[in-house]
Amino acid sequence: MIITEQKPLEEIVQFLTPYSSVFICGCSECATLCKTGGEEEVKNMKGELEKIGKNVPGWVILDPACHRLNDMKFFREHKKEIDASDTLLVLACGNGVQTVAEILEKPVYPGCNSLFLGEIVRFGNFEERCQLCGNCLLDMTGGICPITRCSKSLLNGPCGGSVEGKCEIDPDIECGWQLIIDRLKKRGELNVLRKILPPKDWSTSRDGGLRKFKIAQIRKAVEKVPRQKEVKTEKKIVSSPRSKLEKILKEGKFAVTCELGPPKGADPSPVKKKAKLLKECADAVNITDNQTAIARMSSIACGVILLQLGVEPVVQMVTRDRNRLALQSDVLGAAGLGVRNFLCLSGDHQRFGNHPQAKNVYDLDAVQLILALKMMRDEGRFLSGDKLSSPPSLFIGAVENPFADPFEFRAIRLAKKIEAGCDFIQTQAVFDVEKFKKWMRILKNEGLSEKVYILAGVIPVKSVGMARYMRDYVSGVTVPDEIVKRMEDAKDPKKEGIKICVEIIKQLKQIEEVRGIHIMAVAWEEVVPQIVEEAKLLPRPKL
Ligand code: SF4
Ligand code: SF4
Fold this sequence. Notes:
Layout: E1 2-6, H1 9-16, E2 21-27, H2 30-33, H3 39-51, E3 55-62, H4 68-77, H5 79-83, E4 87-90, H6 94-103, E5 108-110, E6 112-122, E7 125-128, H7 146-149, E8 166-167, E9 170-174, H8 176-186, H9 218-224, H10 244-250, E10 255-260, H11 269-278, E11 284-287, H12 299-308, E12 313-318, H13 324-336, E13 341-345, H14 366-379, E14 395-400, H15 407-420, E15 424-429, H16 433-445, E16 453-458, H17 464-473, H18 481-489, H19 493-509, E17 514-519, H20 528-534
Parallel strand pairs: 2-3, 2-4, 4-5, 10-11, 10-17, 11-12, 12-13, 13-14, 14-15, 15-16, 16-17
Antiparallel strand pairs: 1-6, 6-7, 8-9
The structure holds iron/sulfur cluster (2 copies).
């Protein structure tokens, strides 16, 4: 059913201003059930328009508004009233409005906003269930649609932001992936999710242009839409490392990487300043890609600036902002300029950033982006199968959040990233080392920790407020109360934050499977050299 809401009366009045007489159409189906265009609503609208001096010569409930032949019949019956009207107002979905406008010459205006295709949960209570992608994959996800019910339309499992079954973007929205996992777990079919779902063919959705369908063509249409093929990946073993970071990890040295947030402007000097500061204390510097969905200087451009200064970049690529064409093209461009390390993420939802009105892309999820990079590197092919003229040399990374819900699925998701072709993993910030160790034990038992280099993330906290904020509001981060208490009691919270960070690094270093550390000093990069020194990680290997 198409769910609609009535437009505010002021908006309707505004576009009807030039007209003195209005014919009103309602719809017998969805708009009646939504109480936006049934007989009662049409009569109410008539009353409202008459109150402001409009003449309403007539009205009709179309059966339904999107049925062209039926509409024509109704319009013949109401010809006299329609002829006496300057315009028509249609209280139905956009589909119905357009059907009416295609039949009549007079101006036609929409009285409703079409919201989504949904289910009636209870009377007057609707929820979206399907985005009409044209190639249903509900058989692979326990009958729950990840395209619709996951806010990022991820196809290979949850992002790292789900908390207690709720979506990171709104605690009132259930995490679609939690629902899928719960249902499959209940049926004893969780293993279904171990398979990588390859990049979806969106050409069957709205992205393929205007869709048409004739019942007579049903067989042909089904034949045209191939099912998702199973993905088989084989990693090409290369003896020579592709980057300094890979060399350090391959040689069994404990790696240090840190994060650099690009500026919100075109002046490269802040990037250069931070690069110089971090050059001697990190093996590679990770450039964030519009982190927290805030527009900044591009991660690739910053990566090239770093290369010019002799600093090795790890370029982040989020799938939120670019489709597969742009992502593959940007990777080739960056590789052509000398970037070797890439970190594949889905990215924070745009609702968190400074452009919440933006349209997100999520053509690929992080697992599928890893797959794309691996195909380009190891098979010399694009996702489409087309051959590359020369394959890029890439060291492929991904992120994982050991603390996000659902905990039992984290290892499965990591296994998918490894199978897709991921070489190294950067984790979300660790504050709760015991919980982290528990996750590491799971990875060890599943044989995953030996297949990928794991860099444990740490964040130095600057203030009590930051510690509390991370504990209470940052999804997927566990900050034990003991750490918050230490920050509260500290005479010098900054000093204490650095001390805590160094202690955590020392504990993480003791875990055999942790192959390095990733320091995320959010807008506090100047403390990184001190942290690395106090953690006894200097000097960094010269290669
Ligand atoms: S997979 Fe596609 S067709 Fe199936 S419910 Fe989801 S959006 Fe609709
Ligand atoms: S928390 Fe993440 S995985 Fe879950 S619905 Fe929201 S965006 Fe999707």
